[in-house]
Amino acid sequence: MIIEFWKELSVLAQLSVLEKLALSGVLQTGLTKTRIEALTDGIFATVMTVLVLGLTVPAANLSEVELASQIRAHWPNYVAYAFSFIVLGVYWIGHHNQFHYIKRSDRVFLWVNILFLLTIGFVPFSTSLLGLYAFSPTAVRVYGANLAATGLALYAVWWYATSQYRLVEKDLDPHIVSLAKRRIIVGPIVSMLGVGFSFLDTRISLVLYLLLIPFFIRPSHIDIHFRGGSHN
Prior knowledge:
This protein is mostly helical. Helices cover about 75% and strands about 0% of the residues. Mean pLDDT is about 85; it is low at about 10-15 and about 20-30.
């Protein structure tokens, strides 16, 4: 009788644990997206902070003239830092907007996001390289390749999630899916054009990279959908 009592108690305990897991989202269909968002936010916060470490502080005990001269000499580092910080902000917003529509996850999707974060983690290196060798073809190509890889990885996140409505709601407007795809792919295309032009003139490449900022910052047609409006 005592053994049977402990068996019943064990079953009740197991049911209680399962109920708590279900409430916490662990046993939802597929894997929850909360951990992905938390990891992504953490990686972006870390990388955006690490960027500043690529800036060189002038030596101590310099005169005003020498200090001003050293600061002017490092202007490419400051520009590269500011540009990369804004670019990371653009990609964070893009990823955040995607997860407004993405409702669940699976194992493959986790690794697609890991790939995206891998490209994000490389940005401080490519930024420091560009700051040190502002007009070097090699540095410009490495930076452009980093931008292209990040854009393609973000595109892969959206493509995988929306393909056959795998991780989004079945009634998601197809216009939103295609609109987002077209907007995301602009980044990799322009970045690869910049890499190509680096064989002619790296200044053209840098201008192309800079043009991505106003393109992604300006309000677009997809923002109407994000606010819940109509595209008609």
